[in-house]
Design goal:
Blueprint lengths: L1 H10 L3 H19 L34 H37 L1 H16 L2 H12 L3 H11 L2 H14 L3 H8 L4 H37 L10 H10 L2 H4 L3 H28 L1 H4 L1
Helix pairs in contact: 2-3, 2-12, 3-4, 3-6, 3-7, 3-9, 3-12, 4-7, 5-6, 7-9, 8-9, 9-10, 9-12, 10-12
Length: about 280
């Protein structure tokens, strides 16, 4: 509890972090409260087609007469689900590969780092597009693919921290006492590495959200689930910008940008608190 209080005392002094926290709390509450908010269901239509923002429809309507405010609010859920679960996969893979590589070193480290370098140099978005085209672009596949292709940076950070930690006296003492390596990794290394990786994980959420939206916008993602990428895809595909219906792309883009910025602000703030050397 003392550590949490100390952490919060530092975090609340970070203005960017507080702004990011409020942004994410706001959008999470919007998503949770969507069913009871005084907005039309996302599938409801009106005769007011391509209507600009008004008191009745604050974000206007699209070419089907659907309320854009309702569509934007209901799209938040997909972004949060994608970002959080993809980040969990990224953290798990990055932790395992990074700790094993850094702790054992030698040929194991060499093999893991070559694999990591391979994934770092390939254009991940292009590869994600190809894989989703082959195996399907449902939400589960998209989350899994993003997670499986986005872990290298996390793994390198974990490896670097592990290399530093394993030279500490408490690790050396555990080795001399013939404590099993598995126990040392998860009892001594993991607790010291994990808090710092949380910051990277938060940043991974924003990256996963952007990637998912990009896939759908490009027409290779899931076009059956309501999402910001789908709203932007439909707006550009329908020529709304050229036709002067700017609101159908502005508000989804604004919501998406704010959510990404919120997670970036939180992630950067956590980096400054938990890993100040890396944030410099």
């Amino acid at each position: 509890m003392r550590n949490l209080n100390e952490f919060w005392a530092k975090y609340k002094k970070n203005k960017i972090g507080i702004v990011g926290l409020f942004i994410i709390i706001f959008f999470v509450l919007l998503s949770i409260l969507a069913p009871i908010l005084p907005i039309p269901p996302p599938t409801a239509t009106t005769s007011q087609i391509d209507s600009p923002p008004s008191l009745i429809h604050p974000f206007g309507t699209n070419d089907l007469g659907e309320d854009m405010l309702s569509l934007c609010i209901w799209s938040i859920e997909i972004s949060l689900i994608t970002g959080i679960f993809a980040a969990i996969i990224i953290i798990l893979i990055g932790l395992i590969i990074g700790m094993i590589s850094g702790y054992y070193g030698g040929i194991i480290d060499e093999i893991f780092m070559r694999i990591t370098d391979f994934f770092l140099v390939i254009p991940s978005l292009v590869l994600i597009i190809v894989i989703t085209a082959l195996f399907g672009a449902n939400l589960f596949n998209v989350i899994l693919i993003i997670g499986l292709l986005s872990w290298p940076t996390t793994a390198r950070i974990v490896r670097s921290m592990t290399l530093s930690l394993k030279e500490r006296q408490f690790i050396e003492a555990a080795k001399i006492s013939n404590v099993p390596n598995f126990y040392i990794i998860f009892k001594h290394l993991f607790p010291n590495v994990f808090p710092v990786i949380i910051a990277t994980g938060i940043l991974n959420i924003s990256g996963a959200i952007f990637t998912q939206a990009s896939l759908v916008f490009l027409g290779v993602g899931n076009i059956t689930d309501l999402s910001f990428g789908l709203l932007l895809h439909n707006a550009f595909e329908g020529g709304d910008i050229i036709g002067g219906f700017w609101w159908t792309s502005l508000f989804p883009g604004l919501f998406l940008t704010l959510i990404i910025i919120g997670f970036v602000f939180i992630g950067r703030s956590l980096e400054q608190i938990l890993n100040p050397k890396r944030s410099e």
